[in-house]
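Side project, low priority. Logging it here so it doesn't get lost.
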Amino acid sequence: MKYCLNCGAENADEATFCTACAQREFTLNREEYLRIKFGGSAAAEPEQPLDEELNAVEAEEVPAPAVETVEEDEVAEEFTDELYDEEEDEDSKYPGDFPVEDGVLEDYLGDDMNVEIPEGIKKIDDFAFYEKNIESVKMPSSLEVIGETAFGECNKLETVTIPENVVEIGEGAFEDCLYLEKVVLPDGVNIGANAFNGCESLKEINTEAAASIGSEAFKYCYALEKVILPVAESIPDNAFYYCRDLKEVLFPDCLSYIGAFAFGRCSALQSLELPAGLKTIDDNAFEDCCALKTVDLPDGLEKIGEFAFGQCTRLKSVFIPASVTTVGKKVFGGCNGLTVYCEASARPPQWHKDWDATSGGLFGKKRVKVVWGAKRT
């Protein structure tokens, strides 16, 4: 009897080829086959009992059933795909005119003149409605932020009510909305620089609701007649510049700073009641307020910037308290009929030498009338 060296099958002595695998390598005994199979020699003793070797051969020859495994990366990728699909589903609930990503309305693609922004949107992105031909807009209660220039140059927009959850109106958000007449603000909103700059028709806005006002926020709001300022320590530069119909301004008690040109060219402003905590009136703050007749500066005021009341041509009387240590050049430039009552007995050293000059040139300086050592009446 022969044994095939390839598969171990038994073959008759006279066989030329293995009847199982068609190979022609034979040995005369099975023990020799096993030694050769496992790397030994025909004379070597097997390293383990024959029964164990046979079991090992049988185990090797019987393939284990295939088990499908899922790698961790595949699971993570599948999970990410599911999240992405959920996000797509969340954003896909909005109409096609309102492309939204992560709660941000990126643009308005429709052509409706009366727009209702869907609920769930938290931010109107920069320039989203810029120059759109809309007459009205209803904002969702979920809204928190109005981006920069979001409604810039929407010239048919007349009235806007901003939801109570909005905390920020971005820079230039409603800039140059020429026919915007009324805006309702929520409490605590921060108004960015130039937010309503150039809204020439704006007559009514509850500015006292704001937490802060940015520079030039209401510049060129010609039709604005009354302003109640928010509880804030400062009014920034140019905040109400050239509000030519502004007749009345109510200042908060906590106000300490009025910026440069803050009320410049407010030509209808007739009187000022400045708060007791005011420390600084910066350069040109009330320049060209040509209807202003009297100014009573509060005790505790420390600085009056140059030309702060320049060209206030109807100004007749001003009292400057002794607390004022710094006065700029030509504070009352162009105020030729003015009398200034100073509590100080003489010009303090930090007052500009030409603080009281109204004009100058070839014919010499003209100065306002000054009464030193005056008492507040």
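Brief comment: Residues 72-91 form the longest helix (20 residues).
Revisit when time allows.
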